[in-house]
């Protein structure tokens, strides 16, 4: 059954579109403010040539926004069945592209993650989140995670882990971490909460192993195990091998964390962890980024210094101020009020995406919606967290805010693919 253009237009979730437009608009304003110079011409568009304008991130972002508008139209007019039908094809193509990037990309800041096509640079890792979400959603539409079928769970793990493994191989660990957010979507579809608990417990144990003396930590876990066995004779009689196996695993993690930290992690990754644990240890060296970021946000006070009046960003104290640390501009120039408004907009967008996901008629559409929400949530919390010292500086952009065509395109594709599926939610997908 064909849907008329008027009816299709009415089916689009325009509130989500409005939130997208507002966030992209505010993001561009912040990019302009972060790259603004006090001695810049009053009307740069009218007084500078195109070549000179291309030196400014705010102008290049305008071009990316214009192309994103075209991309939105394409995404909304593409047959909604294509997202389901071509999910594995797009995923396979992205795996090939990640492999090509790994071997042919020119090293930039120690990372082989950018493909250069003439004057345009694209980061395939950004788009891998979209194709992985599609492939995982397609796979989950044909299984039931609640059945605890280990074969299905291992296949799903393979689909999810292959792209980040290739991304890590290109020395882009920050983007690889984002794929962990997909676990939240899998949990919604019936994945055992035990898996999430085990992963969270493992992360806590590794962190404690970096902060607490190893012998003391092993002693604590040993006492806990003996106490559990002493108070619960059922575990002692029927699950003793499992309990001992858990203890051995925990002790192995505690003892092996030093080897992993010193021999697997690269120097800049170790620095990020050290700064997260003790940000004041080297404020003029390794801790410079986070220190200046917190100064910029804190100096904004309640209502900020005013548009284009931020000093920390204008005088380049804050690094990567139009990309990874764009939120500093919000805090410095618009203060607590501006930061609250931006966070509120993101929360409303996340609520709307979850609402859209829940009203889907297919498992594929619902799962994909939760994948979109999970990826955006991870980016938002980690990016904002690293600007105030609550998360390690892993170099991931703030959705719709940070400068860059790859990030803007990838988030646009994620969001508007969902809206295209939602517009046809009353019709059945191919399967």
UniProtKB/TrEMBL annotation:
Lineage, broadest ranks: Bacteria, Pseudomonadati, Bacteroidota, Cytophagia, Cytophagales
Membrane topology: Multi-pass membrane protein
Major place of residence: membrane
Organism: Hymenobacter jeongseonensis
Protein name listed in UniProt: Cell wall polymerase
InterPro entries in UniProt: Cell_cycle_FtsW-rel_CS (IPR018365), FtsW/RodA (IPR001182), RodA/MrdB (IPR011923)
Keywords, ordered alphabetically: Cell membrane, Cell shape, Cell wall biogenesis/degradation, Glycosyltransferase, Membrane, Peptidoglycan synthesis, Transferase, Transmembrane, Transmembrane helix
Transmembrane spans: 12-38, 58-78, 85-105, 154-187, 194-210, 216-233, 240-261, 334-355, 367-394, 400-421
Cellular compartment(s): Membrane
